[in-house]
């Protein structure tokens, strides 16, 4: 098991009159035989990733596409299927599209779902030159 940490250099200072931590945690548990596409030392228990929080958020806990792209590059390969049961703003879908991963995203809030579809459609319209 690893603890991955997203270190935000630009956290929102206050939310509902409470200070916001600049760190968010991701727990990664690797099953025997799981794919690991990198040369990171497997004995390290803590890994940190520094990416700024998105400025044009549609969801209060939206993560940067660049962070998810980094993680997907580490833990998946092209063509893999990625499941996001709490899709929110659709960051997973956009990162998967950019990296040629298949994805299933689930979001119960209709407003977030519709906004995430719009962002995904905008992402799909962008041309890839290389």
Instruction: Please report the distance between the alpha carbons of the first and last residues.
Output: 36 Å
Strands of the biggest beta sheet: in what spatial order? Answer: 4-1-5
Total separate domains:
1
Number of helices: 3
CATH superfamily: Vaccinia Virus protein VP39
Mean pLDDT: 83
Over all CA atoms, what is the radius of gyration?
16 Å
Number of strands: 7
Shape: globular
- Taken as a percent bin, the fraction of beta residues is 15-25%
Order of helices and strands: EEEEEHEHEH
The CATH class turns out to be Alpha Beta
Low-pLDDT regions: none
Largest beta-sheet characterization: 3 strands, mixed
CATH topology: Rossmann fold
Structural class: alpha/beta
How would you describe what is shown here?
- With 130 residues, the protein is of the alpha/beta class.
- The protein has helices spanning 65-75, 91-99, 110-125; strands at 2-7, 14-15, 18-19, 23-28, 46-50, 81-84, 102-105.
- The chain has a single domain (2-54, 62-125), classed as Rossmann fold (3-Layer(aba) Sandwich).
- The chain is 28% helix and 22% strand.
- A hairpin with a 2-residue loop joins strand 2 and strand 3.
- 18% of the residues are buried.
- The model has no long low-confidence stretch (mean pLDDT 83).
């Amino acid at each position: 098991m690893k603890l991955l940490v997203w270190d935000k250099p630009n956290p929102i200072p206050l939310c509902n009159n409470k200070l916001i931590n600049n760190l968010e945690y991701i727990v990664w548990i690797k099953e025997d035989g799981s794919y690991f596409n990198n040369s990171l030392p497997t004995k390290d228990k803590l890994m940190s990733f520094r990416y700024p929080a998105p400025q044009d958020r549609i969801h209060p806990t939206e993560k940067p596409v660049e962070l998810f792209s980094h993680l997907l590059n580490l833990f998946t390969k092209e063509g893999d299927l990625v499941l996001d049961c709490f899709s929110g703003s659709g960051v997973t879908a956009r990162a998967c599209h950019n990296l040629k991963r298949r994805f299933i995203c689930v979001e119960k809030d209709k407003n977030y779902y519709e906004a995430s579809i719009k962002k995904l459609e905008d992402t799909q319209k962008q041309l890839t030159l290389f």
